[in-house]
Amino acid sequence: MSEKVAIVGGGLTGLTIALRLSQKGKEVTVYEKEKDLGGLAGSFDLAGSKIEKSYHHIFKSDKSIIDLIEELGLGKKLKWEKSKVAQYYQGKFFPFVGAVDLLKFKPLGISDKIRLGLIYLYLQKTNKWEGMKKRGAAEWMRKWAGEKNWQVIWGPLLRGKFHQYYNRVSMAWLWARVNVRGKSKDSEGEKLGYLWGGFDQLIEKMKSEIEKKGGKIKTGMEIKKIEKIKNKIRVGKEMFDKVVACISSDKFYRLTQTNKRLLDIDYLGFIDVVFSSKQNLSPYYWHNIADEKSPFLALIQQTNFVDKKNYNNKHIYYLGTYLPQNHAYFKAKDEVVYKDFFDYLTKIFPDFERKLVEEKRVFRFKWAQHLADKNYDKKIPKYKTELKNVYLVNFCQIFPQDRGMNYAVSEGEKVSKMI
């Protein structure tokens, strides 16, 4: 009789584990509390196409997800485009991709530009990050990049993403962010990848393959408890030989009441406004907003990355920000969020016309980003939990790299081999 395995959580990690275990002949059941699969990479309908609820792209160095895309026959839909990044500072947008853009960046003097360029180069090339674990990113950048670079570039970005926690963020985490992007460059500059037609195609293909192998996928089912019953584990009303929980560490604690240290990890939430419009606001794809008065940290114009023909010739925009989990926006009415975000968008793009916005949605994710602080290596949860044959897998175990689709897949591959 084949081994029965429950997967709690239908994001990319859970689906990767379910795919691999079903291929090994295990009897797999996936439980997902939402009505759709994908987790942070979940999609919805907009402008006649499927698109992610929060902005997503991959890098050239993202081998795990690239290999999975190829394996599932979607390789021809994976397109690579040159990155187009701008930095907003004191009322103006500046292109901010390579060395030439840095030299033209007026808010910095020549000595600060040279210093910043050397910092980028060092972080992209070095693999000696162990000594950065106990150093704060803010402290490290102030020392090596200098106060002006801190005020103009790094300070607004770190405070904008981590808010009151910014001084606790490990420099190893920031090293990984810069290092990964450096590995996505070739002779033409940074290249970003997107699955034309949306990453939902990958989710659906994985679902199809799991079900072909006899796996079950149950959406709209929230699990309230995971408990050991003799030599079995009960999940909901069913009994299993093994369980893999692909959920946040604090949620796992609430389901099992084991290992209170899981509560030591702090999280931030994420909110974004996604909308379609006939209006073309910018020539750039990614806009960093270095203004702490802005309600959003980044503006992404999807259709400067993926051709607008994919969206009925409409332009697609994301306005996204990370926030403390107790922030008012998580309980506020959508109209409050729209007003605040669109008011500021009008400030930075005075020609923005709200009447041209056709479809709009607000998405909220309360467990979107863990805080990789200076003691984080001691907080990383183990895959094998205190409950025999129960495993915990989530993005909190990824360090110093940050969470993302590639690591969601690679963690799933790793854990599926343990079971």
Describe the protein in words.
The chain has helices at 12-23, 63-71, 99-104, 110-125, 137-144, 147-162, 171-182, 200-212, 249-256, 334-348, 405-418, and strands at residues 4-8, 27-32, 43-46, 49-52, 58-59, 78-82, 85-89, 92-95, 185-186, 189-195, 216-219, 226-229, 232-235, 238-240, 242-245, 267-277, 286-289, 298-301, 315-324, 357-370, 390-392. The chain has 419 residues and is α+β, with helices and mostly antiparallel strands. It has a 7-stranded mixed beta sheet, sandwiched between helices. It is globular, with a radius of gyration of 22 Å.
Summarize the structure.
This protein is an alpha+beta fold and 419 residues long.
Core attributes:
alpha+beta, FAD/NAD(P)-binding domain, Polyamine Oxidase, Chain A, domain 2, 7-stranded mixed beta sheet, 5-stranded parallel beta sheet, 21 strands
**Any guess at the CATH architecture of the largest domain?**
3-Layer(bba) Sandwich
State the helix count: 11
Low-pLDDT stretches: none
CATH fold label of the largest domain: FAD/NAD(P)-binding domain
Strand order, sheet with most strands: 8-7-17-18-19-16-20
- Provide mean pLDDT, rounded: 94
Q: How would you characterize the largest beta sheet?
A: 7 strands, mixed
Q: Give the CA-CA distance, first to last residue.
A: 16 Å
For this structure, the quaternary state is single chain
**Shape category:** globular
Fraction of residues in helices? 25-40%
Number of strands: 21
Radius of gyration: 22 Å
Q: What portion of the residues fall into strands of 2 or more residues?
A: 25-35%
CATH top level assignment of the largest domain: Alpha Beta
